[in-house]
């Protein structure tokens, strides 16, 4: 049996970050959107357990932990333990989501592994159990299962869909050099010692989504981690200015960065913006959202 599961990248339309909790995680008020950049994970029957990862040339492979420490190994161990099964399978991952880019690529792989291995092993895990296992694997993994446009609370792992009337066009500019998420959060703590216990709800952004209004959404995009990312990577400030002067409505850093995302009014505006940014940047992607969470695309 061979099963291929496709899992989307996420961008943050809003990322509100509070002061660190006792467990070290930060309380979040996040609005996630799944966009059409995917990792494909294929699982095949096998007696043993093997994971291999193919990344594009331009990605920062140093951030992909291999040799038993990959998030996919942890997903398999957790699902197997939940059902009292032994871990087995050959897993191949084709990465298109930028590595260490702030787009939850590792979380997408974990979500895809849960969906694929559940099917391969005939485990029939309930949706609630899948979400609970996902939350143990990482803050963004439940969203990678759910997809669409969703509000994330807690440390980001509690997700619920929000009203979204738009088709949103994005230009994404990943960076060949990744940023470490824990390092960005530590820098956030230094910059904002008075962060609130619970970050407030982004009401204007939720209203813009429900109305499908790109100009209102552009004005409301916000990321509390952006100052920390720009401090460590001042070049991103120039990139954001370049995208906005190329025609995008607004550019922001997504998640913990360094990927920058540009909201455009239409597919034409996104293509024109991307063409101009390609003069100075090797990898510039045009995509749209919202798209589905982790789902099976082939099953033979
Ligand atoms: O949950 P996840 O494994 O994706 O988190 C990676 C790291 O990002 C954590 O170890 C922590 O340093 C930081 N993080 C955080 N608060 C969150 C989510 C992540 O501090 N809500």
Automatic annotation (TrEMBL):
<feature type="domain" description="GHMP kinase N-terminal">
    <location>
        <begin position="70"/>
        <end position="148"/>
    </location>
</feature>
<dbReference type="InterPro" id="IPR004424">
    <property type="entry name" value="IspE"/>
</dbReference>
<dbReference type="InterPro" id="IPR020568">
    <property type="entry name" value="Ribosomal_Su5_D2-typ_SF"/>
</dbReference>
<feature type="active site">
    <location>
        <position position="140"/>
    </location>
</feature>
<comment type="function">
    <text>Catalyzes the phosphorylation of the position 2 hydroxy group of 4-diphosphocytidyl-2C-methyl-D-erythritol.</text>
</comment>
<comment type="pathway">
    <text>Isoprenoid biosynthesis; isopentenyl diphosphate biosynthesis via DXP pathway; isopentenyl diphosphate from 1-deoxy-D-xylulose 5-phosphate: step 3/6.</text>
</comment>
<comment type="similarity">
    <text>Belongs to the GHMP kinase family. IspE subfamily.</text>
</comment>
<dbReference type="InterPro" id="IPR006204">
    <property type="entry name" value="GHMP_kinase_N_dom"/>
</dbReference>
<keyword id="KW-0547">Nucleotide-binding</keyword>
<protein>
    <recommendedName>
        <fullName>4-diphosphocytidyl-2-C-methyl-D-erythritol kinase</fullName>
        <ecNumber>2.7.1.148</ecNumber>
    </recommendedName>
</protein>
<feature type="active site">
    <location>
        <position position="10"/>
    </location>
</feature>
<keyword id="KW-0418">Kinase</keyword>
<dbReference type="InterPro" id="IPR036554">
    <property type="entry name" value="GHMP_kinase_C_sf"/>
</dbReference>
<feature type="domain" description="GHMP kinase C-terminal">
    <location>
        <begin position="206"/>
        <end position="280"/>
    </location>
</feature>
<dbReference type="GO" id="GO:0050515">
    <property type="term" value="F:4-(cytidine 5'-diphospho)-2-C-methyl-D-erythritol kinase activity"/>
</dbReference>
<keyword id="KW-0808">Transferase</keyword>
<dbReference type="InterPro" id="IPR013750">
    <property type="entry name" value="GHMP_kinase_C_dom"/>
</dbReference>
<dbReference type="Pfam" id="PF08544">
    <property type="entry name" value="GHMP_kinases_C"/>
</dbReference>
<dbReference type="InterPro" id="IPR014721">
    <property type="entry name" value="Ribsml_uS5_D2-typ_fold_subgr"/>
</dbReference>
<keyword id="KW-0067">ATP-binding</keyword>
<keyword id="KW-0414">Isoprene biosynthesis</keyword>
<feature type="binding site">
    <location>
        <begin position="98"/>
        <end position="108"/>
    </location>
    <ligand>
        <name>ATP</name>
    </ligand>
</feature>
<dbReference type="Pfam" id="PF00288">
    <property type="entry name" value="GHMP_kinases_N"/>
</dbReference>
């Amino acid at each position: 049996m061979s099963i291929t599961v496709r899992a989307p990248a996420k961008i943050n339309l809003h990322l509100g970050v509070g002061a660190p909790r006792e467990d070290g995680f930060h309380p979040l008020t996040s609005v996630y959107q799944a966009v059409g950049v995917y990792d494909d994970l294929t699982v095949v029957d096998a007696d043993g357990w093997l994971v291999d990862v193919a990344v594009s040339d331009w990605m920062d492979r140093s951030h992909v932990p291999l040799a038993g420490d990959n998030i996919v190994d942890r997903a398999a161990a957790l699902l197997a333990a939940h059902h009292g099964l032994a871990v087995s399978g050959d897993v191949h991952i084709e990465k298109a989501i930028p590595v260490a880019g702030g787009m939850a690529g590792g979380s997408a792989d974990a979500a895809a592994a849960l969906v694929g291995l559940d099917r391969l092993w005939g485990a029939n895990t309930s949706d609630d159990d899948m979400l609970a296992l996902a939350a143990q694997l990482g803050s963004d993994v439940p969203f990678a299962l759910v997809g669409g446009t969703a509000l994330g609370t807690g440390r980001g792992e509690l997700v619920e869909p929000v009203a979204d009337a738009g088709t949103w066009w994005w230009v994404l500019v990943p960076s060949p050099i990744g940023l470490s998420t824990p390092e960005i959060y530590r820098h956030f703590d230094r910059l904002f010692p008075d962060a609130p216990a619970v970050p407030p709800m982004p009401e204007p952004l939720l209203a813009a989504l429900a109305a499908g209004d790109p100009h209102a959404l552009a004005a409301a995009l916000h990321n509390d981690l952006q100052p920390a990312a720009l401090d460590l990577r001042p070049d991103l400030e120039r990139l954001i200015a370049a995208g906005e002067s190329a025609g995008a409505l607004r550019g922001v850093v997504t998640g913990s960065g360094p990927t920058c995302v540009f909201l455009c009014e239409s597919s034409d505006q996104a293509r024109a913006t991307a063409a101009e940014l390609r003069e100075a940047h090797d990898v510039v992607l045009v995509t749209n959202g919202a798209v589905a969470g982790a789902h099976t695309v082939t099953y033979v």
